[in-house]
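S.,

Sequence below, as promised.
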Amino acid sequence: MDEEYESHSLAFPPAYLGKITKGPTDKLSIISVKGESMEPTLLDDDIVLLDGHKTDISYDGLFVLRFNTALHVKRIGRSAKPDHIMVISDNRDLYPPLDMRISDVTAVGKVLWYGRKV
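The prediction came back faster than expected:
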């Protein structure tokens, strides 16, 4: 599946969005985080705001990526191999970094914000 479908929405003040991104608001999406691979930064059931206009993974950052037929929230880092990137989980004790071909990874968007229940 190459497309995700809207199930809910969340309102952000336009002025706040203008502070965190210069991209078009129609490229912003919210998704739920599942799993423990990004702990302690992101927890299971956190939500993230991603900017689908920012898909350039030639620089480091926290991104929503599509690989192995699923969406993943991961950090991107530089690889020593040409045409590769490091796909990094914050919970490195359980999930070691992956050295992946750039062509095997699609950036859905850069993570701009996260929220969680208290």
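The mean pLDDT is 92.

Coffee later?
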